[in-house]
Amino acid sequence: MKPFIYDYTYDELREWAVAQGEPAFRGGQIFDWLYVKRVNSFEEMTNLSKPLRQKLDEQFAFVTLNEITKFESKDGTVKFLFGLHDDHAIETVIMKHNYGNSICVTTQVGCKVGCTFCASTLGGLKRNLSAGEIVAQVVQAQKILDDRGERVSSIVIMGTGEPFENYDATMNFLRIMIHDKGLNIGQRHITVSTSGIVPNIYRFADEDTQINLAISIHAPNDALRSKLMPVNRRFPFDDVMEALRYYIAKTGRRITFEYALIGGVNDQPEHAEELASVIKDMLCHVNLIPVNHVPERKYVRTSRNDIFQFQRILADKGINVTIRREQGHDIAAACGQLRAKHMESGAR
Questions:
Q1: Is the dihedral angle over the CA atoms 261, 237, 228, 191 positive or is it negative?
Q2: What is the pLDDT of residue 339?
Q3: What's this model's pTM, rounded to 2 decimal places?
């Protein structure tokens, strides 16, 4: 199978052009056609010679995302289930905010992290996505927004999969997204979320970017986190916290702790007290997430009163804390739910 043209960064396309006996700026022109003009074929790249367009067609393929289904929420959230070239399926979400359009992208087909409250792990991990398959999700979303005269203003890498288990592809995706000659998404408008893949938290800290880091923590201690997140047995709670402290010291940037509140499991006052004591000296923000009900899981949502009580305890301890605004609640917008339904029909 030919490599995807979206797999290539700006610099790599310039290098490819030179290898074909062309001036480097031809690679920049290709990049412009892909991300500024957003063409669907090499034949549309009309300022390139016909022989060069033929070489592109011979050596590369466009990523094909076939729309299997689409759901639109009353709040403006649009969730897509896309089919890939090998018949696997992935989810991508467009979320409309008062500050613009945010795209939630997927980095893997399935997930092996195993969080017990998440639909993404149902069926396990099938494969990593290439950088180009992640890029294509944003390009596809931008083409949809083009019809409205709008643009992608922010990206969250919080869809199905663990981006730090697909680190190199994720980083190439980010380099393509932030390049000023392409979609030019501001680094501070991008957030990558990890479940705590410790070696790659250190790597990410050393990348020297302004991209935001979020950590799915979901428990205030090692024992409870291991029950909720089997990945904690590979990368224990204390090791994760040590890596995050390194990240903060190295970058000077605030991290976000994502904490899914599960009724009667991790949402009691003692959990809030313990969490506050663990993170009190860290440059951080806590985002409380009322857990979505997943039919295949037995967890229930935390009551409204308990959500606000948990928030108050953290705030009283000086922790910066918010409750995530729910979006797409009426269209199975929790990660993996749409794909899980699709898999029930015998698809991949």
A1: positive
A2: 47
A3: 0.92
